[in-house]
Amino acid sequence: MDKLLIRGGRTLQGEVLVSGAKNAALPELCAALLTAEPVTLLNVPQLQDVSTMLTLIRNMGVAAERSADGTVRIDASGLNTPEAPYELVKTMRASVLALGPLLARFGEATVSLPGGCAIGSRPVDQHIKGLATMGAEIVVEHGYMIAKLPAGATRLKGARITTDMVTVTGTENFLMAAALAEGETVLENAAQEPEIVDLAEMLIAMGARIEGHGTSRIRIQGVERLSGCTHRVVADRIEAGTFLCAVAATGGNVVLRHGRADHLDAVIEKLREAGAQVQAVDAGIRIQSPGAAKLRAQGFRTTEYPGFPTDMQAQFMALNCVAQGTSTVTETIFENRFMHVDELVRLGARIQTDGKVAVIEGLGNAEAAHPPLSGATVMATDLRASASLVIAGLVADGETVVDRIYHLDRGYDCMEAKLRGIGADIERVS
Ligand SMILES: CC(=O)N[C@H]1[C@@H](OP(=O)(O)OP(=O)(O)OC[C@H]2O[C@@H](n3ccc(=O)[nH]c3=O)[C@H](O)[C@@H]2O)O[C@H](CO)[C@@H](O)[C@@H]1O
Ligand SMILES: C=C(OP(=O)(O)O)C(=O)O
């Protein structure tokens, strides 16, 4: 099993190329199921989750080829098995995004329930309720959602869908289903994430009629068929945010090429309050930091976009551990997304948790002769927890080994090579 070996203490300088967003590429690969015409996606990141999604759609009879430059060509004209099996869904929750497109184009779908994962339960009751409002008949049997149209119906019906909470994958499933439904669908309480906007733009390029994406009310006028398209996946704001926290912690001066500062307002605001300089520049985002010991830790609460993203909580917590002062972090989206805490503590961090709240005693001291964390072997437990351990390892004294980095490989495109490119001492060992 691969591990990362990090020797901490280097500042970071130079330029990093931000990849396409995992959380946009995965729904967009599913959106290609909505048409029998070829779809080309550009800027698709090289990630394990993308490979899993390609396996999933190929299992359905879809032709999909991926080139090294990030182009993926999909031809779903031969789709013959509208099914997402448990073996694949259990390793990647995003597989539930096949439900909406399969139901809309074929009138049937069998998709495994995702179950839970390390960070908490991943319920899909809102997906089922919303698609049922559009006329689908969905039963849950043997761990699968088995969905079909009522006898005689050929399309889903447009509907007004108000979800109990803001759901990102729910909004994506509804968008894709509604694009081919009969009549108008209005999504109330819709998610506003940049990845939703990017998916909507791809669907519009396929001929969908969508308005209001990026706001909490999205209107979709269903069309009878969608065409192929070429679409470029939006830059990964979470990858960019992770590098921002890494540079803030180590100190340095780095440009994140293609990074979108306008998609990271909540995180950038906190970094500025901490004392780092962060600017949108032509090429992307520039960060200059004197290093965590001279920054002030910042409390935050995770919420849906445009609030502070849950997918950045672990990485910012790692920064808070080595900055000055006490901070409070509240995780409101997932009930178990503090798995990195015990591992950060192994490196010397001081963190107390109580339910959704973590209190971090920042160990930053600009006068100290040694870094406050000391290298150790730590275990990655989930995707963003892994990234937080890498950030901690970059500032810790001596060697840190991050084990189980298959979690990291699900969602970061060549992270160690990118970090090495800006001066980190980090290598992958088997
Ligand atoms: C709003 C939010 O921050 N969503 C995050 C969530 O998206 P993801 O799409 O996985 O999760 P949702 O946005 O659907 O879930 C948001 C909240 O709603 C609940 N829920 C959701 C659907 C449902 O049918 N029933 C239900 O109760 C979830 O338990 C969760 O507490 O995890 C992703 C991976 O970390 C992040 O990229 C997303 O930013
Ligand atoms: C947890 C994440 O992804 P997933 O929903 O695929 O588990 C993430 O992107 O941080």
UniProtKB/TrEMBL annotation:
Write out the GO MF terms. Answer: UDP-N-acetylglucosamine 1-carboxyvinyltransferase activity
This protein's GO CC annotations? cytoplasm
Q: Where is the Enolpyruvate transferase domain?
A: 7-419
Q: Which Pfam families match?
A: EPSP_synthase (PF00275)
What GO biological process, any one, is recorded here?
Answer: UDP-N-acetylgalactosamine biosynthetic process
Q: Which reaction does it catalyse?
A: phosphoenolpyruvate + UDP-N-acetyl-alpha-D-glucosamine = UDP-N-acetyl-3-O-(1-carboxyvinyl)-alpha-D-glucosamine + phosphate
Q: Where does UDP-N-acetyl-alpha-D-glucosamine bind?
A: R93, R122, P123, V124, D125, Q126, D311, I333
Annotated positions of the 2-(S-cysteinyl)pyruvic acid O-phosphothioketal modification: C117
Active-site annotation = C117 (proton donor)
EC class of the enzyme, as a word:
transferase
Q: Where in the cell is it found?
A: Cytoplasm
| Pathway(s) per entry | Cell wall biogenesis; peptidoglycan biosynthesis
Major place of residence? cytoplasm
The record's section on Gene3D superfamilies has:
Enolpyruvate transferase domain (3.65.10.10)
Could you tell me the keywords of this UniProt record?
Answer: Cell cycle, Cell division, Cell shape, Cell wall biogenesis/degradation, Cytoplasm, Peptidoglycan synthesis, Pyruvate, Transferase
Q: Which SUPFAM superfamilies match?
A: EPT/RTPC-like
Assigned EC number: 2.5.1.7
Binding residues for phosphoenolpyruvate: K22, N23
Q: Which PANTHER family match?
A: UDP-N-ACETYLGLUCOSAMINE 1-CARBOXYVINYLTRANSFERASE
Q: Which named protein is this?
A: UDP-N-acetylglucosamine 1-carboxyvinyltransferase
